[in-house]
Amino acid sequence: MYLHEYLFFAIAILICMSFALYADGKVKRAYRQYGAVANRRGITGRMAASRLLQRSNLYNVGIGKARGHLSDHYDPRNENVNLSEGVYENASVASVAIAAHEIGHVMQKHTGYGLYRVRTALVPVVNIGSRLAMPLVIVGMLLDLFVLAGSGNTLGYTLAMVGVLLYASTLLFALVTLPVELDASRRARQMLVSEGILAEDEMQGAKEVLSAAAMTYLASALISLVYFIRFLLYVLTVFGKRRD
Hints:
Blueprint: H1 3-34, H2 45-55, E1 62-66, E2 73-75, E3 80-84, H3 85-88, H4 93-110, H5 114-147, H6 155-194, H7 203-243
Parallel strand pairs: 1-3
Antiparallel strand pairs: 2-3
Helix pairs in contact: 1-7, 2-4, 4-6, 4-7, 5-6, 5-7, 6-7
């Protein structure tokens, strides 16, 4: 790649990394602030999740405890909502907001939300792509350099581009994840109010926690986009020069 292309990439990734650090800090500050604010009804994260599941008649979904800090997630394979230790038995505004967000993902699956289904379908592709993308690019370049130079064969370039396309699956996953997470937060806000878990004046804290979390997914999507562009330009530049 040319010097100005490296400079552009360095500036772009620096901006994205800075935004990611800001988003991560915002999540931690919001959680620390509203994790210390007890909700009036004394409802823990586990109780909130259980109530929302029962109201939706989803009795086959379990609620478990996950190790780690902010490690909350929904596992659709075994139908289990795993809440982190700081959320599970904590009766704070932040805890019920996070629990409701995970139930939002449960609702996405059981109502057939399109983008959630797309993201789920992409998981195996992303797992394969993240492992094979770079090796394929390297193999393609080596073939082009040592075996096929001057022969007119395009196998090296084809392998490299397959690697780029596999890496693109991680970008697509990040882009699809963002609206999925935003929708789960929207569902969470609605459920918290409609089920009377939080009062209207407590919702501001819940919104701040959920909005801060959404920023981390935006940062992830931006970083994936920058790396994909850099990846693609690098392959096109290297093979373009050799064709010349």
